[in-house]
Specification:
By secondary structure, the chain is α/β, with parallel strands linked by helices. It contains twelve helices and eleven strands.
Length: 356
């Protein structure tokens, strides 16, 4: 049977859309939004009809009738913590996306636009593995400060998609595999996948785990408290040091891995130290999660944009290859991952989950 799925992935300054026939992309486009264009909207949610109209216009331009769609799948937003999987967009989800239950983010628009387009042509509307996927073991939530439990916010969509891809190569089912997956991009998250669930992972949004191109990761807590209360910084300045201006950006003035690799190639010793330090911290995070599996790990997987760097992944592999087979899947194919989640439901391989 043939299934046509429209995939929608809204970003802060762009909207990606793709049409799939089963697993094959028919086309994929990125619509860029200039600052002047977006300035007319007071809130991010006000952009909703504007972006929906652009996507419908794109369908018309490509000569595809919306009533031929079987499903529309949007990028999941900042919802309540939920287990991983494919969710059919319902009224509860739409309400939480509109009000920004866990904060405002462009991805909140994905489910809303998907629902409206699907409703008009009697297709299904889905989201898949949003960043708020929470499958942590209870013991993994403990932080040492009861008021500050550890949270699960990570690159769930790519980690879960890459996990399934690796399992196909290993001739395993995801639900029976033991994997450690490091997604390495602007933020870095390292997850322990056991029995189809991510039972422990660092919170890549609010500063935990390895430092990354733009984030500080785990920092000395006492020193951070003193810095925050010193009177020298406002709250947003401290948060900026942790998120957006931390990591490689703080040390080297850039988050561009290619630029840093070029600097290393020209003999920049500081750039090499800081870049290798990031690989060291990723390896440490992988090592710390390895204790969860009692020595039985099917694979350690490196993915995300930084996984294109052979020297960078080589530094990590040197330190973790004793833990298990190391597999590298560079990049992050979010559109295919969203389509695969919708397709599993359309084919009857799994049931859509209900958000409440």
């Amino acid at each position: 049977m043939e299934f046509h799925t429209l995939v929608i992935n809204p970003g802060s300054t762009s909207t990606k859309a793709a049409l799939f026939k089963n697993s094959t992309p028919e086309w994929e486009e990125t619509i860029r939004h200039g600052q002047e264009e977006l300035k007319q909207f007071r809130r991010l949610m006000d952009q909703y009809p504007f972006r929906k109209k652009l996507i419908l216009g794109l369908l018309e331009e490509k000569g595809f009738r919306a009533d031929k769609l079987d499903a529309v799948c949007g990028r999941g937003g900042l919802l309540k913590p939920i287990p991983g999987g494919t969710y059919e967009v319902n009224n509860s989800m739409r309400e939480d996306l509109r009000k920004g239950y866990n904060g405002e983010h462009a991805s909140n628009l994905g489910g809303l636009i998907a629902h409206d387009i699907a409703a008009e042509v009697e297709a299904k509307a889905f989201i898949v593995d949003p960043v708020v996927v929470d499958e942590l073991d209870e013991i993994a939530r403990l932080s040492g400060v009861p008021e500050l439990p550890r949270k699960s916010i990570f690159h769930a969509l790519n980690q879960k998609a890459v996990a399934r891809r690796a399992c196909r190569e290993l001739d395993l089912t995801y639900e029976k595999a033991n994997l450690i997956i490091a997604h390495m991009g602007g933020g870095i998250t390292v997850g322990a996948h056991r029995g189809g669930k991510v039972v422990d992972v660092n919170n890549g949004l609010h500063g935990e785990g390895p430092y990354s191109p733009e984030r500080a990761g785990t920092v000395p807590a006492g020193d951070l408290v003193q810095l925050s209360l010193s009177g020298d910084y406002f709250l947003d300045e401290v948060m900026g040091k942790l998120i957006g201006k931390g990591g490689l950006t703080a040390y080297l003035g850039t988050s561009d891995a290619v630029e840093i690799e070029n600097r290393i190639g020209k003999g920049d010793r500081e750039a090499r130290l800081v870049y290798e330090g990031m690989a060291y911290q990723v390896a440490k995070e992988i090592g710390s999660l390895s204790v969860l599996f009692g020595g039985t790990i099917d694979a350690v997987i490196l993915t995300g944009g930084l996984a294109y760097g052979k020297e960078f992944t080589g530094w990590i592999e040197e330190k973790v290859s004793w833990i298990g087979k190391v597999m590298i899947f560079p990049g992050e194919d979010e559109m295919s991952a969203l389509n695969e989640g919708a397709l599993r439901v359309l084919k009857g391989e799994e049931e859509a989950k209900v958000y409440s």
